[in-house]
Amino acid sequence: MSGWGWRHAGRLAWAVRDLDLSIEPGQRVLLLGASGAGKSTLLHALAGVLADDEGEHEGTMLVDGHRPAPGRAGLVLQDPDSQLILARVGDDVAFGCENLGVPRDETWRRVRESLDAVGLAVPLDRSTTALSGGQKQRLALAGVIAMRPGLILLDEPTANLDPVGVAEVRDAVSRVAQQTGATLVVIEHRVAVWQHVVDRVVVLGAGGGVVADGNPSSVLEARGAALAAGGVWVPGHPPPLPNRRQRRAPVAVLDTEGLAVGRSREAVQSGLDLSVSSGATLAITGSNGTGKSTLGLTLAGLLPPVGGVVTASDVLADGAGPHPISWRSRQLLTRIGTVFQQPEHQFLASTVRAELSVGPIALGLSAAETDSRVTELLERLRLARLAEANPFTLSGGEKRRLSVATMLATRPGVLVLDEPTFGQDSRTWAELVALLAELVDDGTALVAITHDLDLVDAIADSTVELT
Fold first, then answer.
1. Looking at the DSSP assignment, which residues form a beta bridge with residue 139?
2. Please, what is the Cα angle at 82 between 418 and 420, to 5 degrees?
3. pLDDT tens readout for residues 406-458
4. Where are the domains of the chain?
5. Exposed site from 11, 29, 181, 384, fewest CB < 10 Å?
6. Are 148 and 96 in contact (CB under 8 A)?
7. Which of 260, 282, 227 lies closest to 461 in space, CA to CA?
């Protein structure tokens, strides 16, 4: 790459600019940088999937001496749903091999090996839509591994995985790279996961170019404090924790009795007796596929219980009835706000500012109050420079902050957040956690579904681990 840069259509600033970088065959590169520095854009460009009509570019980029084109590299995206193609797990993993003309027997041998390598122990005929977010992430990685590409590009491949899954996926990638000699470029905010697997660390600057490049130990030793200040999760440099204020005694606003949750009336968890209280944070943790997201959607009144009940207090219900599943969407707006695991699933408007205005407008707030709330959230969550950008052009971390902000704009009494810190650098993580802590201290009831143990340590008042 020589002087390479790319700007998304509809964005005011360049996503990547003035990039001079050469990666040798077989190298294992950890790509770091603050949220929004253009890491995902660079990976998309290397994979040859940036269309000319999506933006403008400058400089030169070559892969094996040629302009990047689809098929030269295997790319695992931040959003695994965007890579699901076929209805069954085995067919989905086999899809890439079949397109490459791999013989049938060899294809299905690779399918089984790849699923074993990423730790996805499900039947080959399992519906891909029935998988959890973390399981879908493993499925996407298995599909790439099965193709045996010479260049493997991973965009936060472990972001939605439990700790065991993180280790499994990292080790699987390492084995494949070792066995095949493939070149590896991986994006990950948390350095500790990959620092002993890669042989090179490259840090992109928020304003363009490369600010650090070298072997992991030298880069982290020489630039550790500066990198941490810029948002990189550097071992030994934890982000600041929020200052907590004196809080009022918590009062239960949601209770469950004998709750069973699931989809299509098939329970994945049952016998749950939980309490969600104002001014307190309930963290829901557990391995992938244990029903954490399903429980969150049920508490939020978006999925009916398979058994048992979810009951709201009189104060939270405010005349809407005792059971959130019976509330209309407008009644939910000020009572229970939900942030989905995949941010794109809740975007409705064509600009970030308009997206943040959807809830306040639906509540009938004045233009002045709507503008005040939106402007405050844009500033607090570092989205002001993106106010006129299309939400779908944001980076993964920016999308997550926007999805959280859309719920904060309506100021509900209860917030149910599914992986709220996904894709954040350490700086935006600290700012987001501080904002959530303020809300809790002011009396909001928070339910956080998460694998982020740092988040649990920072703000959880109680924890339920699903098994």
1. none
2. 15
3. 999 999 999 999 999 987 889 889 989 999 999 999 999 999 999 999 999 99
4. 2-229, 252-466
5. 181
6. no
7. 282
Distance CA 174, CA 105 (A): 25
Strands 200-204 and 55-60: unpaired
C-alpha–C-alpha distance, residues 353 and 349, integer Å: 9
Answer yes or no: same fold for 2-229 and 252-466.
yes
CB 90 within 8 Å of CB 171: no
Asked whether the predicted pLDDT for residue 134 surpasses 80, the reply is: no
Inter-residue contact 294 to 269 (CB < 8 Å): yes
> Could you identify the residue written with the tokens 């009396």?
443
CA–CA distances in Å: residue 88 to residues 95, 131, 165, 169: 11, 10, 21, 21
- pTM score: 0.81
The yes/no answer on whether domain 2-229 falls in CATH 3.40.50.300 is yes
Q: Does domain 252-466 have CATH number 3.10.129.10?
A: no
Structure tokens at 198: 């890669």
Under the banding of pLDDT at 50, 70 and 90, the label for residue 2 is confident
Taking the CA atoms of the chain, what radius of gyration do you get in angstroms? 22
Contact 335, 253 (CB under 8 A): no
